[in-house]
Specification:
Elements: E1 3-7, H1 12-23, E2 27-31, H2 39-42, E3 47-50, H3 57-71, E4 76-79, H4 94-122, E5 125-130, H5 133-136, H6 138-141, H7 145-164, E6 170-177, H8 183-188, H9 200-211, E7 222-225
Parallel strand pairs: 1-2, 1-4, 2-3, 4-5, 5-6, 6-7
Helix pairs in contact: 1-9, 3-4, 4-7
Length: 229
């Protein structure tokens, strides 16, 4: 049984990923500030939930040390925490960028770094970051500058991890969703064609594939879960 850590486990994508992985027979470690959407998982013997301040590097590293001692080996991590904000270069300040940097980069890096060191010891591991299409497409990214800049850093972090892990069975991947079909997005865009949006369950299928033996030969991957959006 593989053990997978999921940060942002209580969110729309997180809950879909928790359900998919539990259904497929993984042990799942969920991390978030609340577990209000995880009632279906709380009684599962293969699920544990933790509240961790991912903005605190010391606390995050201590948490990773604790779960390694408990489980012995962590096979993968889905790092789903992040934040969004609109704003162009005319309006975005350094404070805005630092806020997005903390939410989108530090929350991932503070978990990925100690896990990467652990995974290299065992010559196996899967680290998955969530990028964004605006980070890849400047025409979209210019209107959410701080968000897009800090999401773009995750692509380079994955590249650097893969370069450092070359020759091992440790990989970093980036999942890039288009608009995710959630209640909040439907409320904010009531005239959109929701059929074109990607479903959290579709993205969870991709995440499970990355963690599974089916994806074992893939390296340096960027998965674009756009559906028709």
């Amino acid at each position: 049984m593989k053990t997978i850590l999921i940060t942002g486990a209580n969110g729309n994508l997180g809950t879909a990923a928790v359900k998919k992985l539990l259904d497929e027979g993984y042990a799942v470690i969920g991390v978030d500030s609340a577990n209000t959407h995880l009632e279906f998982a709380l009684s599962n013997a293969h699920f544990t939930f933790h509240t961790v301040n991912l903005l605190d590097e010391t606390e995050a590293a201590g948490f990773i040390d604790t779960i390694i001692k408990q489980y012995g080996k962590i096979d993968g991590a889905l790092l789903l925490v992040g934040g969004f904000a609109m704003g162009t270069i005319e309006t975005i300040t350094g404070t805005d960028i630092r806020k997005m940097y903390a939410l989108n980069f530090e929350t991932a890096y503070f978990i990925a770094r100690p896990l990467f060191l652990h995974m290299k010891q065992y010559n196996y591991g899967r680290l998955v970051f969530v990028g964004s299409r605006p980070a890849l497409q400047a025409e979209q990214g210019k209107d959410a500058l701080a968000y897009s800049l800090t999401k773009a850093m995750l692509f380079k972090l994955a590249d650097f991890i893969n370069a450092s892990a070359k020759g091992t069975n440790v990989t970093a991947s980036v999942l890039v969703p288009s608009t995710i079909d959630t209640a909040i997005n439907r409320k904010s865009m009531p005239d959109a064609n929701y059929d074109d949006w990607v479903k959290p369950e579709q993205l969870a299928d991709i995440l499970e594939f990355i963690c599974s033996d089916k994806g074992s030969s893939i390296r340096e991957a960027v998965y674009k879960g756009y559906n028709n959006g």
